[in-house]
Amino acid sequence: MNREIPQVAKDLSGKDKVRVLFVCLGNICRSPAAEGVMRSMAEERGEAGRYSIDSAGLYGGHAGELPDSRMRVHAYQRGYRLDHRSRPVRVSDFDDFDLVVAMDHSNYDRLRGFAPTVETERKVVKMIDFVRGFPQFDCVPDPYYDGAEGFENVLDLLEDGCACMLDVLDGRH
Ligand code: 4NP
pLDDT band at 1, cuts 50/70/90? Predict the structure, then answer.
């Protein structure tokens, strides 16, 4: 396991308002689930007002759609209601958000390439770098072609990673 909390996230710990964009390929499974988990955890901590949370996809083919019904069902069983509508990543996202969080290596490489400046490229981080457990994973894997286990696995990784990310942004790392 080779993970390190990104410095760019630690540097946000003193900021009044923090804007986080989660990104995957289709924006119908992993990133809308991350958005829902993060928002719910921020609410539980009484910190919802500090965060602006959204998600987007590198592939625009599902634009306008709700999350995949399997993702919604598994998330709902854990108390998360996912109602995001899929949208593609925009160049302006790199200015509009403080952190752009990639679910896998391909997302990460493409986002880094898409970032308009060196400063905005630094905002791109990997979700897995915030995950404390699950040493067998080096990314949040695409569950689209998997069964129920893949969706549960995504939620396990996201709950761990979002809790840690909120701790980091609170200056607790
Ligand atoms: P996601 O999953 O990137 O977690 O939203 C996928 C959803 C759709 C496709 C691929 C991955 N697709 O190729 O349509």
Answer: confident
What is the rounded CA–CA span in Å between residue 64 and residue 84? 9
Residue whose CA is closest, atom 10 of ligand 1?
A: 26
Return d(Cα 63, Cα 68) in angstroms, integer.
12
d(CA 147, CA 128): 21
147 alpha carbon to ligand 1 midpoint, in Å?
Answer: 14
Query: Of all atoms in ligand 1, which is nearest to the CA of residue 67?
Result: 5
In 3D, which of 74, 96, 86 has the Cα closest to residue 19? 96
pLDDT above 90 for 104: yes
Q: How far is Cα 84 from Cα 148, in angstroms, rounded to an integer?
A: 21
The structure tokens listed for 27 are: 């924006």
Structure tokens at 43: 């609410």
Q: CA dist 119 to 99, 102, 116, 147, Å?
A: 11, 17, 9, 39
pTM: 0.98
Q: Which atom of ligand 1 approaches the CA of 86 most closely?
A: 5
Scan for tokens 């080779």, then name that residue.
Answer: 2
User: 3-state DSSP call for residue 54?
Assistant: strand
Q: Burial, 57: exposed, middle or buried (Cβ in 10 Å; 0-12, 13-18, 19+)?
A: buried
